[in-house]
Each structure stands twice: as structure tokens, then as C-alpha cells.
């Protein structure tokens, strides 16, 4: 069984592009990924692009970290990714607590986060790295940098309370309005962002400069990739001094008169425009997944398509409709309960894994088959199962402990080719037979490797009990991308409808996974029932 990666984004907010980038990267790598989104608001747009939504208290509340820790433990989160500045320092301080649960936190060291959160220290740090930065002061009477000047909060973000002042009188008036300010010389020139991704040890993977062509409230609306050698070299100096864990975003201005680069901001997180660099080829989302899988990634210079221009736009999602669907979906605790929802239907479509049988039985069966190859290791099957319960890659952990890492492919082949020791419960068998006696057509739509899925179907004796079976991976043929045919894709449901010859509204679909099972049939106006299998693999 391949491990499912689980990533939790905190303060998900409006970061829809970022969620989409990670989903796209998982499809590209054919990796099983489940994205969790946490936010103090249960209607934040990005939450509806996550597989699971979690409401949490506000960052400043004392229960914030305890609630996050509980979420990570309960949901077996592999990686936590913060998305806003106010989250950074508190998470950096508590990073060890998450790691003790097995959750990595994509965040840099606490002392480095402190440098970014107080802009008085940012300039000194930049200069210490050997790059230019305008020096700030934090009291009006200390400013001697001339005009125009620039005033902003020392720990601000999103260009809030950031102003240009063209005279001493204007600066003095602004100093009364801007809270906890700093003042520095105004640099006139072209603005750039540098999107950087490093591995967990601070080694650079991508360094991508891009010009900010249009900005709204500090967020880029239009940008152009600018693979500038000098900016990249300067940014690498900053990386060496900062040693980021994961993403970091630098901002700089190339002064119009001198052509010198003045670095002004550091944000040790994915910037709002980071998906633009990903779209251009410096795919940080893909790299994070590969790093999480244990790969080593060397520095990829100039990975983005130089000169590409990207323009962003707003889009909407009807959150009341999404919430309504989730709340109104009929829920059952046993498959037998579905009978009452099928009374006026001519066909019943079912998922396979964790719907018609418990997939944990398949996993245990596979571990038993692997264990048969290791008679010299007592209780090998039990050891594999324990690793699985702990959320660890069971086969990798087992082989590593016994010094047999080179045998991984043989173990996976054994697992995937097993004739599984699984059975269809008498209750489920009687239900299928009852539906057949009533004249209902029965179909199964299941994702997964065809060889393994058909062996499950044979072991359960389903071929004699149902009318049609579609293993979605077979729809891809020999060369297609199986991810494009798996649920929530609609094609399998459309083919099933054509085979059975029954209108969608006269069919009912029963599945266990709301993250992928119900989107396609609902698009086709097919009624659905959610089987909350208490013995399910990932419940």
C-alpha cells in the first residue's frame, strides 16, 4: 500500500492557487496526497480546494498551538505549511512539539524568523550577507536619509500603513498615524520578488526572480520572470546566511539611477505570488512532495521560463452550495442502511475499497504475504502492521530495521500481486442478492492498479453478484495518465450509465470517501450516499 502524504496548510484564507499547485504536483508525480486546510473562518475560499477542512481558533488565542497539535496527531499530518506572517514566529518556537508527533513544519529557525518580523533587523541582516539594503530608523528625530522617504510598520505586511513622504512635514504627520514605525530612504526603481525554495537543510533548490509589473495591496497582479544573473547571485548569498527551511520570498528594488539592487523585505514562507514561479517551471510544490518522500534534490538554476508574463485574476466559489452538499449528503454507518435510499432506484453503483469490504484486511493480507518471505524474522507481519498504524511507510521501515533496503521492489511486487485473503461479509452479500432479486442493476466503479483490483474482486466473488465493473485505471490504456481517469473524473460514471442504460437520476452511488467519491456523480445529478465506514483505512 503506497503511503498517502498528508499536508496541513494553516490560515488557508485565499491561497487557492497554492492548493491547486500542490494538487497538480501530486497528479504529475502520481503521488497520493491529501490536503488539509485550517482557518479561523469556516468559509475561507481556499478551504474548499482542500480535501479536508478544519476550523481552528485565531492565532493569538492561547489554545492555537494545542489545537494544531491535536489536528496533526489525529489526522497523521506529515507536513505543516504556514501561509501568513503572523503564524511564523509562534510555529517556529513550537516546531519541536510537532516533530515529536511525526509532523514536519516547513518553517525556518526562530532567530531567523525574528529577523524578518522586525524590519529594523532585516536591513542589518541583508548588509551582513553582502547585499545592499536601505537602513531604517525607528524614531522620527533620528531620520537623516533625505526625501522622498518611506515609512511603514516594523512588523507589517501586505503594504498596510506603508507610505511615501516627500517632505519633513508629511513624514511627521504620517509618524502619528503609522503604528510602531520605521523610516528609511525611498528607493525609486523597478520592483522584484525572488521566490526561493530550499530543502529541509537550507540548501537551495530554486531561485526565481520576477518583476512586479502590477500590484494591489501588496499582492502581485502581473509579473514577468526575470532570470537575472546578478539578482540570483545576490539571493544565493542571502540563502547562505539565512539557511531557510523550505520557502522564502525576497523583495528588492533595482534603483533607476544607479542600477544597484536594494533588498527591502524577507518573507520566510510561500509568498502570494509563489505559484507564478511554479507555473513558469520552478515547481516548488512538486519539489516539496519529492523532499517529503525522501528524495535529494540538487540546485536547479534558472528552472523558470525566462520572460514569461503572468497575469492573475479573481474567481469565486459558492461556499453555501459546497457546505449545503456536505451537510445534506445522506450518511450511513453500514451498507445495509443504503437499502432505504435505493427503493425507487433502478441501479445501485458502489465504490469497492472500504465500501464493500474493509481495506485494512487487504493491507494485513499483503503484509502476511511479505512476511512469508522472511521466515527468519519472527512476527514480521505484525511488525509491518504496527508501522502502518504509526503512519510510517511500513515496507521501508521494516526493511531498514533489518538491513534489507535493496529488497523493496520485491516486497512491493509481492504485496501488489497477492491473491488477497479478504471476504465479502454475509450481510453485504445478502444485500447485493436482494437488489438483484428486485431487478436492480448493480455496478462497481473503483480506482487502483487493475491487477490488484481484479484480484480483490475475484476474492470477494463480486463478478457473479454485479452486472458491470469499471476499474478506472484501465480507461487510460497503455499510455494514458491514470490520474485523469480516477475519481473525481466523470468518465467512468458516464460509461457506466451507457452500459446500464438507466438515467442518472434513477441510479444511486454509494462511497466512503467525500474527498473524491461524490463530485462526479453529483455533477451528473446522480443521488449519493456517504458510507462512513468506522473501520475504514483513513477515517
Task: Tell me what the structure shows.
The protein is α/β, with parallel strands linked by helices. The chain has four domains: 5-106, 3-Layer(aba) Sandwich (Rossmann fold), CATH 3.40.50.20; 112-311, D-amino Acid Aminotransferase, Chain A, domain 1; 329-357 and 423-531, Rossmann fold; 360-416, no CATH class. It has 19 helices and 20 strands. A six-stranded antiparallel β-sheet has the order 13-12-9-10-11-14. β9 and β10 (204-216) form a beta hairpin.
What labels would you give this structure?
4 domains; elongated; single chain; 6-stranded parallel beta sheet; Rossmann fold; 34% helix; D-amino Acid Aminotransferase, Chain A, domain 1; 20 strands
Main sheet overview: 6 strands, antiparallel
The counted number of beta strands is 20
CATH architecture group name of the largest domain: 2-Layer Sandwich
Low-pLDDT residue intervals, each spanning 5 or more residues: none
Number of separate domains? 4
Cα end-to-end separation: 16 Å
CATH superfamily of the largest domain: ATP-grasp fold, B domain
What is the helical fraction, as a range of percent?
25-40%
Fill in the CATH topology of the largest domain.
D-amino Acid Aminotransferase, Chain A, domain 1
Amino acid at each position: 500500500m503506497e503511503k498517502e502524504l498528508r499536508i496541513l496548510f494553516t490560515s488557508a484564507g485565499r491561497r487557492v492557487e497554492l492548493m491547486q499547485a500542490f494538487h497538480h504536483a501530486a497528479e504529475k508525480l502520481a503521488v497520493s496526497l491529501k490536503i488539509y486546510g485550517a482557518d479561523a473562518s469556516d468559509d475561507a475560499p481556499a478551504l474548499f480546494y482542500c480535501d479536508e477542512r478544519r476550523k481552528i481558533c485565531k492565532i493569538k488565542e492561547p489554545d492555537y498551538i494545542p489545537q494544531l497539535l491535536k489536528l496533526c496527531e489525529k489526522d497523521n499530518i506529515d507536513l505543516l505549511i504556514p501561509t501568513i506572517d503572523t503564524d511564523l514566529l509562534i510555529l517556529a518556537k513550537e516546531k519541536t512539539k510537532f516533530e515529536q508527533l511525526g509532523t514536519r513544519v516547513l518553517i525556518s529557525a526562530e532567530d531567523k524568523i525574528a529577523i524578518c518580523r522586525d524590519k529594523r533587523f532585516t536591513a542589518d541582516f541583508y548588509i551582513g550577507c553582502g547585499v545592499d539594503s536601505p537602513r531604517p530608523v525607528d524614531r522620527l528625530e533620528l531620520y537623516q536619509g533625505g526625501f522622498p522617504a518611506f515609512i511603514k510598520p516594523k512588523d507589517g505586511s501586505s503594504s498596510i500603513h506603508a507610505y511615501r513622504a516627500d517632505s519633513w512635514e508629511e513624514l511627521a504627520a504620517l509618524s502619528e498615524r503609522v503604528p510602531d514605525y520605521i523610516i528609511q530612504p525611498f528607493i525609486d526603481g523597478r520592483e522584484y520578488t525572488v521566490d526561493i525554495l530550499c530543502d529541509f537543510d537550507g540548501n537551495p533548490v530554486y531561485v526565481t526572480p520576477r518583476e512586479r509589473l502590477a500590484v494591489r495591496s501588496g499582492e502581485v497582479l502581473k509579473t514577468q520572470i526575470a532570470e537575472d544573473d546578478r539578482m540570483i547571485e545576490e539571493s544565493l548569498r542571502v540563502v547562505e546566511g539565512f539557511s531557510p527551511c523550505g520557502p522564502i520570498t525576497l523583495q528588492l528594488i533595482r534603483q533607476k539611477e544607479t542600477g544597484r539592487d536594494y533588498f527591502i523585505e524577507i518573507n520566510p514562507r510561500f509568498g502570494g505570488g509563489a505559484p507564478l514561479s511554479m507555473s513558469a517551471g520552478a515547481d516548488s510544490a512538486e519539489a516539496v512532495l519529492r523532499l517529503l518522500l525522501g528524495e535529494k534534490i540538487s540546485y536547479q538554476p534558472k528552472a523558470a521560463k525566462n520572460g514569461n508574463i503572468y497575469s492573475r485574476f479573481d474567481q469565486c466559489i459558492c461556499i453555501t452550495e459546497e457546505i449545503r452538499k456536505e451537510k445534506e449528503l445522506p450518511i450511513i454507518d453500514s451498507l445495509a442502511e443504503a437499502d432505504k435510499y435505493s427503493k425507487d432506484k433502478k441501479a445501485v453503483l458502489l465504490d469497492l475499497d472500504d465500501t464493500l469490504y474493509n481495506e485494512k484486511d487487504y493491507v494485513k493480507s499483503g503484509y502476511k504475504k511479505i512476511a512469508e518471505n522472511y521466515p527468519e524474522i519472527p512476527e514480521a507481519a505484525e511488525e509491518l502492521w504496527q508501522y502502518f498504524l504509526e503512519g510510517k511507510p511500513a515496507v521501508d521501515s521494516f526493511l531498514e530495521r533489518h538491513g534489507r533496503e535493496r529488497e523493496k521492489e520485491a516486497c512491493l511486487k509481492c504485496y501488489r500481486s497477492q491473491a488477497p485473503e479478504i471476504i465479502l461479509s454475509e450481510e453485504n452479500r445478502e444485500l447485493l442478492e436482494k437488489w438483484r432479486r428486485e431487478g436492480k442493476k448493480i455496478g462497481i466503479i473503483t480506482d487502483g492498479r487493475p491487477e490488484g483490483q481484479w484480484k480483490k474482486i475475484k476474492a470477494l466473488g463480486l463478478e457473479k453478484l454485479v452486472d458491470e465493473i469499471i476499474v478506472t485505471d484501465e480507461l487510460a490504456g497503455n499510455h494514458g495518465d491514470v490520474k485523469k481517469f480516477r475519481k473525481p473524473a466523470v468518465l467512468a460514471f458516464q460509461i457506466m450509465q451507457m452500459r446500464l442504460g438507466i438515467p442518472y437520476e434513477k441510479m444511486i452511488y454509494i462511497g466512503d470517501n467525500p474527498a473524491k467519491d461524490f463530485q462526479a456523480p453529483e455533477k451528473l445529478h446522480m443521488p449519493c450516499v456517504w458510507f462512513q465506514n468506522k473501520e475504514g483505512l483513513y477515517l
